From TrEMBL:
SUPFAM superfamilies per record: Metallo-dependent phosphatases
Transmembrane spans: 6-27, 39-58, 70-93, 181-202
Key word Metal-binding present: yes
Region span, Disordered: 121-177
Protein name (Swiss-Prot/TrEMBL): Metallophosphoesterase
Pfam hit, one: Metallophos
Polar residues bias (residue ranges): 126-136
Organism: Plantactinospora sonchi
Keyword Cytoplasm carried by entry: no
PANTHER family assigned to the protein according to its UniProt record, in alphabetical order: PHOSPHODIESTERASE YAEI (PTHR31302:SF31), TRANSMEMBRANE PROTEIN WITH METALLOPHOSPHOESTERASE DOMAIN-RELATED (PTHR31302)
Keywords, in A-Z order: Hydrolase, Membrane, Metal-binding, Transmembrane, Transmembrane helix
Entry-linked InterPro entries: Calcineurin-like_PHP, Metallo-depent_PP-like, Metallophosphoesterase_sf
CDD domains: MPP_YkuE_C (cd07385)
Length: 453
């Protein structure tokens, strides 16, 4: 409970600070006080509430905010990134203007009105007298000079030049109009670029997945099994923004590969069987020579994992919950194992990854391919002699430059690597989570071809 509250509190704080920054750069710095600033402030407040409201409502099964809310989250993210990047050139432009102003000449001094009753300190200039520099009318209350009579004209405020270091001067480099002009230029650039990037990302995310082909040598793979092909897909994220057509498109892409095995490595759904059962139904049409297999991802544990395990099995996918399956193909054999996602234990299901149950007691001369949703499981897999781990979870970062943050949590964001002697391949995933946007990490289905050495 406290963990959830802490997450929500951190999320609200982060979103609030981001919107405060956007308000400052896009509204306050670009407008004068008045109606337009007030309207912009109201819009910023509404959008600041929309972002967390979308995340919370969709988790509760209310999806009417999903499209506008998630699209704004994506635009917000890119506005933030672009404006932060523009901070440096904007600062440089201000410094250049200030330097040019100083080179052009001294600052323009503004006259300062001295109110009645104040003493006036005359600037000290060598070899100068009051007569030579001009006289100053002594206001009421000044002790120098005779007292004013009843018929005298009331003294007026005197206008004198400020002493050095006194009243401020106006420099074009500090001109509010010029600063506002720079701010408007940055705001216009960000305001045009961010929606354009998001529009491209929506088109990419909702389009067909790209097919990548990779060859991975396994030292223990029998010659007879050379060229065995595993169609690998993860993070399909069947949900309220995708629907049945999304699943059909991915199934058709996989079937065209004519694979020997199909591996679905987690995060299949974002909702319950009651909500998404019809959208998941096309999975029954998956075709492969030696079977289709599934392991849980963290999102299954948010969506009713027990029901989904039954439903996926009913659709023809073998669920590997901390277990392995012997694959006999082409006169050879390998072990295909699967472990549960760590979210199972973290959320109190007592069904976290159990590598001993999945890998213990097997023939060590036989190659083993492990299906594990999160790449970080590779460290434990290496301790159990796994030859190859197939994973997803990262979405390839989904939205550049978010991939840089993903890299702080996972050993590999996308592609192939060898870690502690175990090979790891991470696919981008075929769907999306949150904003229906992919930039720099297109949706992907990977055909992994195993080669004997």
């Amino acid at each position: 409970m406290f963990g959830v509250l802490g997450f929500v509190g951190t999320l609200v704080l982060a979103i609030s600070l981001i919107h405060l920054y956007l308000w400052k750069r896009l509204i306050r710095d670009t407008t004068r006080p008045g109606r337009w600033r007030r309207l912009g402030t109201i819009a910023a407040l509404v959008l600041a509430v929309l972002a967390p409201a979308t995340l919370i409502s969709t988790r509760q099964g209310f999806y009417w905010l999903a499209w506008p809310g998630y699209l704004w989250l994506a635009v917000m993210f890119y506005l933030l990134v672009i404006l932060v990047v523009l901070e440096v050139p904007t600062l440089v432009a201000r410094l250049v203007l200030r330097r040019r102003t100083r080179r052009a000449g001294p600052a323009t001094r503004l006259p300062v009105a001295v109110p009645a009753g104040a003493e006036v300190a005359e600037p000290a200039t060598p070899n100068a007298t009051t007569a030579s520099t001009g006289s100053v009318s002594a206001p009421a209350g000044v002790t120098s000079g005779p007292a004013a009579g009843p018929g005298d004209v009331p003294p007026q405020p005197a206008t004198v030049p400020p002493a050095s270091g006194g009243a401020p001067s106006v420099e074009p480099g500090h001109d509010p109009d010029r600063r506002r002009l720079l701010a408007r230029g940055a705001a216009i650039f960000a305001g045009l670029t961010a929606p354009a990037i998001v529009g491209y990302g929506v088109h990419t995310a909702l389009g067909p997945p790209r097919v990548d082909r990779v060859r991975i040598p396994l030292a223990k793979l029998p010659r007879a099994m050379d060229g065995l092909r595993i169609a690998t897909v993860s993070d399909i994220h069947i949900g309220p923004l995708t629907g049945k057509a999304h699943t059909e498109r991915i199934v058709a892409t996989i079937n065209r590969l004519d694979a020997d095995l199909v591996a679905v490595v987690g995060d299949l759904v974002d909702g319950t069987v009651g909500e998404l059962g019809d959208a998941a139904a096309p999975l029954r049409d998956l075709r492969s020579r030696y079977g289709s297999f599934f392991v849980t991802g963290n999102h299954e544990y948010y969506s009713g994992v027990e029901e989904w395990v039954v439903e996926v099995d009913r659709l023809g996918l073998r669920v590997l919950q901390n277990r392995r399956q012997e694959i006999l193909a082409r006169g050879g054999a390998l072990d295909l194992a699967g472990v549960n996602d760590p979210a199972g234990a973290d959320l109190g299901f007592a069904e976290g990854p159990d590598f001993t149950a999945a890998l213990g007691g097997r023939d060590p001369s036989r190659p083993v391919v492990l299906l594990a949703h999160q790449p970080v499981n590779v460290y434990e897999a290496a301790k159990h002699g796994v030859d190859l781990q197939l994973s997803g979870h990262t979405h390839g970062g989904q939205i550049v430059p978010f991939n840089l943050l993903v890299g702080l949590q996972q050993p590999v964001v996308s592609g192939h690597a060898t870690i502690d002697g175990t090979q790891l391949y991470v696919t981008n995933g075929a769907g999306f989570w949150g904003p229906p946007v992919r930039v720099g990490a297109p949706p992907q289905v990977t055909l992994v071809e195993l080669r004997s050495v």
